[in-house]
Amino acid sequence: MIPTPSKFTLFIEDLFTLLLLGIPLLLVFSGSIGVALHDVFHPDDLVWLGLGLLTLVTFFAIPIFLWKYYQLGWQQLTRHQRIFTVLYSAALLVGLLIWWVITTQIPSSWLTWLAPLG
Question: Which helix (H) or strand (E) holds 71?
Answer without folding.
Answer: helix 44-72
